[in-house]
């Protein structure tokens, strides 16, 4: 007796439902951002075997050779909201700390000039490079190492994004921001975390604006409150 074949998933329908049922209700109304979610196929960036979960409202695990790394992707609505709040310009240069599978970088580079993304886990960095290449994404440079340590030597950026959390706003990255540049990070300790957008003033200070409460994994090597007094 043959086992009935599982019907193929309609990815486009699932993508439409994700945008209309998850992302729009989360105040992501910028049409350019919504259009990008149609163009950059999220299912091509989730780990093998998780493609049918690509549009679910949760952080998905990042796996290498079927084994969990302990790292995760942001949920779709989080990725979309970050992209909307960044308001990237076509000439902007962006630094991302925490590459993951490369999906966030793939989205951002559609709106800016170049993305440099730094990943501590070498195997995950290789996965991101492969994903970006397979999907024809250019103008993204994936580096292996600690982004908090490397940032000072990578030049100046118009925006810096932490694809993960930090217990405090990482003001150590201030020197890598251009004047009036933006720094986006999830800040705080569980269970009290917030997505925060900070702008660098002309005087070189960070002016922070909390956006909404959320929860996500803390980035390895992120600064701790005891190490810095803001």
TrEMBL record:
It comes from Limnobacter thiooxidans. It comes from the Bacteria. Pfam families: PCMT. One of its GO terms (cellular component) is cytoplasm. CDD domains: AdoMet_MTases. Belongs to the methyltransferase superfamily. L-isoaspartyl/D-aspartyl protein methyltransferase family. InterPro entries: PCMT, SAM-dependent_MTases_sf. GO terms for molecular function: protein-L-isoaspartate (D-aspartate) O-methyltransferase activity. Transmembrane segments: none annotated. SUPFAM superfamilies: S-adenosyl-L-methionine-dependent methyltransferases. Gene3D superfamilies: Vaccinia Virus protein VP39 (3.40.50.150). This is Protein-L-isoaspartate O-methyltransferase.
């Amino acid at each position: 007796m043959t086992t009935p074949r599982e019907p193929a998933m309609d990815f486009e329908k699932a993508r439409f439902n994700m945008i209309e049922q998850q992302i729009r209700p989360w105040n992501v109304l910028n049409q350019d951002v919504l259009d990008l979610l149609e163009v950059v196929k999220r299912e091509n960036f989730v780990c093998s075997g998780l493609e049918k979960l690509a549009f679910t409202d949760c952080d998905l695990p990042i796996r290498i050779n079927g084994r969990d790394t302990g790292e995760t992707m942001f949920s779709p609505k989080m990725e979309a909201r970050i992209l909307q709040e960044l308001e990237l310009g076509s000439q902007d240069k962006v630094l991302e700390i925490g590459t993951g599978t490369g999906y966030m970088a793939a989205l951002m580079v559609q709106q800016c000039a170049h993305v440099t993304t730094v990943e501590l886990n070498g195997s995950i960095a290789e996965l991101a490079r492969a994903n970006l290449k397979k999907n024809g994404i250019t103008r993204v440079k994936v580096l292996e190492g600690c982004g908090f340590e490397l940032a000072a030597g990578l030049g100046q950026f118009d925006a810096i994004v932490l694809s993960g959390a930090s217990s405090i706003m990482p003001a150590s990255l201030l020197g890598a921001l251009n004047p009036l540049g933006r720094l986006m990070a999830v800040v705080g300790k569980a269970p009290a975390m917030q997505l925060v957008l900070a702008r660098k003033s002309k005087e070189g200070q960070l002016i922070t604006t909390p956006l909404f409460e959320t929860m996500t994994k803390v980035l390895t090597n992120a600064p701790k409150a005891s190490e810095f007094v803001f």
